[in-house]
Fold:
Amino acid sequence: MVLQIRRAEQADRDAVAALLDEAFQEDPVSSWVFPDPAHRRAVHGKFLGVFVDVALAEGRIDYAVDGSAAALWLRVPAGDHGGEAPEDDVPARMREAADPDNERCELVGRLLGESHPTGEEHEYLLMIGVAPGRQGEGLGTELMRPVLERCDRDGLPAYLEASSERSMRLYERLGWEFTGTEVQLPDGPQMWPMWRKPRG
Structure:
């Protein structure tokens, strides 16, 4: 399969946010942040829209030309902590934008930031989403491939947090390895930080 990919622009912002909203409606972490399904449908897109805004401003979004998938990437310099600059205010922004009375909106970002590696410059896969009707077709793999190939050429590691065991298995096939320490959400699901060494 050849997936046509372009870099998303500001004009794509709402479409990318809607795609991620749809793709993650039933995700374990999203379900923990917003336990009530009706409330989740109302505010989840605003919550994920902050991720889109961060990636548009500070990173890149690779977007399938047909709108079926999007991957949000940030280049994190060595010595920069994922939960501090440049994104230290992101958890608070997510809570403010989506659901100010829901502390879980902010807590999930804070906990993930605490586990984010600091020692090496790396590409951070902030989020990747595939339209529900297209999942299982390999679109996510194709969407990630150009960045991972560039990481391999440049000797650059990559990092992500898997939100389900199913997605963790997919990432393992692409060279990511579980770091060994889960992020446990209080009274909720686990997330699995994963690191990918560049392939020679």
Observations:
- The chain has seven helices and eight strands.
- Confidence is low (pLDDT under 50) at residues 82-87.
- The first strand starts at residue 5 and ends at 7.
